Each structure stands twice: as structure tokens, then as C-alpha cells.
């Protein structure tokens, strides 16, 4: 099992669109999170893998060997 963080990128993690009641104007508010560095970690099981995720990092992808 391993996890990856894309190298130096910004990912859109949420977006909410609203439309005015009396018009055709729409607005969209998006939330981006910065992704820095790439790290692969290997572990025997999911619990061990989660224990290896550094503070402030997010587990994005898991694959089996």
C-alpha cells in the first residue's frame, strides 16, 4: 500500500455555484488546497499506512502491491 501527493499543484476541493433570484448573474465560490511534494510510503496494512502519514498531510491515493 502507498500514497501519493502531486508535486506542487493546486487542487479544487469544493465549489458552490449560486444564482441571483432576479437576474441571470451566477457566482461560484471555490476552495483550493495546495499540494506540495510527492511521497510514497509503504506499509503492510491500512492502519500502519495511516500512521505513517506526516502531520498536515492528506492521504490521497492507496494502491496494493
Task: Itemize the secondary structure elements and their pairings.
Elements: E1 9-19, E2 26-35, H1 46-51
Antiparallel strand pairs: 1-2
Structure description:
9% of the residues lie in helices and 32% in strands. The chain is mainly β. The chain is elongated, with a radius of gyration of 18 Å. The mean pLDDT is 81.
Give the count of helical stretches.
1
The helix fraction, in percent, is under 10%
Strand content: 25-35%
As residue ranges, the low-confidence spans are none
Mean pLDDT: 81
- Termini separation: 6 Å
What is the string of SSEs from the N terminus onward? EEH
Arrangement of strands in the largest sheet? 1-2
Describe the structure concisely for a colleague:
By secondary structure, this protein is mainly beta. Helix content is 9%, strand content 32%.
Amino acid at each position: 500500500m502507498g500514497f501519493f501527493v502531486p508535486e506542487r499543484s493546486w487542487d479544487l476541493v469544493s465549489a458552490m455555484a449560486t444564482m441571483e433570484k432576479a437576474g441571470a448573474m451566477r457566482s461560484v465560490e471555490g476552495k483550493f488546497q495546495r499540494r506540495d511534494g510527492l511521497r510514497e510510503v509503504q506499509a503492510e496494512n491500512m492502519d500502519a499506512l495511516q500512521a505513517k502519514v506526516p502531520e498536515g498531510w492528506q492521504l490521497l491515493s492507496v494502491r496494493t502491491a
